[in-house]
C-alpha cells in the first residue's frame, strides 16, 4: 500500500507537540482520577505520558480543581489539556499550567447567554494567546447549541458541521490560528460523515478524531477502528482519542489501543468492517467527572446482562456523570446516567425514574424485555 497522503492542514502547536501539517498522528487520553487528588492524577498523567500519549486531558470543574492543576503541573512532564466544559470562566486560572484548552460550543452557549458568542470565544483566544496555548473546538452530537438543532432539524451531522464551521469563522475574525476541531458522535458512521464534510469545507484545520462513548472492549475498539480506518486512510485526522470504559488502573490501554489502530492503518493493515447492527451498548470513558466509582462495574454488568438481546437492534447508553449523561442518553432506546447514589433511567429520552445501583439492572432488564416484545409484535 502506498503511503497515506495526509490532508495539508496548517500546523498547530500544543507546547512542543505539532498537530497537523507534516506531523505524525498523535494519540491522546484523559485522566479518570479526581483532579483534586493531586497524587493520583499526577501519577496517572505520568503513566499515560510514559505509554506514549501526546496529550493528557484533565477536567477542571471548580476553583479547587484549578488550584490542584497548578500542583499537578509541577509533578508531570506530560503535555496537558484542560477540558473546560461548563466552566470557561476558569480559563485564565488554568491556562498558565497547560498546553491546550478545549471548549464545547454547546456548553459555551448555555453560560452567560446574554453575552455574544463571539465575545466569549474572543476571551478564550486572548487567554490562550497570552499563555501560548492551543485550542480545541470540541463539537459533540449530544450537546450542540439549540440554534443549530433548529437550523438542521433531524440532521445531527449538519448541525455539528455548521457549528464547527461557525466557530472556525470566529477564530478567523479574531485572527487566532492555533486551533484544532473535533466532531464526535457515538455512531462511527456519523463520525465519518461529519469529519468528511468538515474537511471538505475547511481542509486547512487539523482534526482531532474520536468516537464518543465507544464503550467497553472489545466493541469499543471495533467501533473506533471503523471510523478511523475510513478517515485516516483518506488523509483526514491529525490527532486521535479512543474513548474506552476502563477502570483507573487500566486507563493507559486507551493509548495502546490508539497507537495500535494508527500503526495498523499506516501499514495498510485493515480489519474488515463489522456489521454494526444488533445490540449497541454505548458507554462513556471513565473520567474525573464520574460521581460513583461503581459506574464502570455497572457498564460491564449491563453488557453481561444483555447478551441475550444481541440480535436485536437496540441501543443502550450508560453514562457516568451529569455533564454528558442527560443529553447523550436522549437518542438511545434505553439510557442510564449515574449520579452519586442513584442511576437515572430513560426510555427514548423520557426519564422513567431514579434507582439505586443495586436495583437498576432489574429495571433495565424489564424495560429491555418490554421493548423487544413490542417490536416483535409489530414485525
Distance between the termini: 45 Å
Structure classification: alpha/beta
Per CATH, the class of the largest domain reads Alpha Beta
Work out the strand percent: 15-25%
- Overall structural domain count: 2
Features:
379 residues; alpha/beta; TIM Barrel; 2 domains; five-stranded mixed sheet; 40% helix; globular
Topology:
Blueprint: E1 12-14, E2 17-19, E3 26-30, H1 38-50, E4 55-59, H2 63-75, E5 80-83, H3 91-94, E6 100-103, H4 105-110, H5 117-130, E7 134-140, H6 146-151, H7 156-174, E8 179-184, H8 188-201, E9 207-215, H9 219-232, E10 239-244, H10 253-266, E11 280-283, H11 294-305, E12 315-319, H12 325-328, E13 334-338, E14 342-347, E15 350-356, H13 360-377
Parallel strand pairs: 3-4, 3-10, 4-5, 5-6, 6-7, 7-8, 8-9, 9-10, 11-12, 12-13
Antiparallel strand pairs: 1-2, 13-14, 14-15
What's a quick, concise take on this entry?
This protein is of the alpha/beta class. The protein has helices spanning 38-50, 63-75, 91-94, 105-110, 117-130, 146-151, 156-174, 188-201, 219-232, 253-266, 294-305, 325-328, 360-377, and strands spanning 12-14, 17-19, 26-30, 55-59, 80-83, 100-103, 134-140, 179-184, 207-215, 239-244, 280-283, 315-319, 334-338, 342-347, 350-356. The model has no long low-confidence stretch (mean pLDDT 90).
Write up what this structure looks like.
The chain has helices at residues 38-50, 63-75, 91-94, 105-110, 117-130, 146-151, 156-174, 188-201, 219-232, 253-266, 294-305, 325-328, 360-377, and strands at residues 12-14, 17-19, 26-30, 55-59, 80-83, 100-103, 134-140, 179-184, 207-215, 239-244, 280-283, 315-319, 334-338, 342-347, 350-356. It is 40% helix and 21% strand. The protein has an eight-stranded parallel beta barrel with strand order 3-4-5-6-7-8-9-10, surrounded by seven helices. A five-stranded mixed sheet has the order 11-12-13-14-15. It has a two-stranded antiparallel sheet with strand order 1-2. It is of the alpha/beta class. The longest helix has 19 residues, at 156-174. The model has no long low-confidence stretch (mean pLDDT 90). It has two domains: 12-266, Alpha-Beta Barrel (TIM Barrel); 280-377, Sulfite Reductase Hemoprotein, domain 1 (2-Layer Sandwich), CATH 3.30.413. It is built from 13 helices and 15 strands. It is globular, with a radius of gyration of 20 Å.
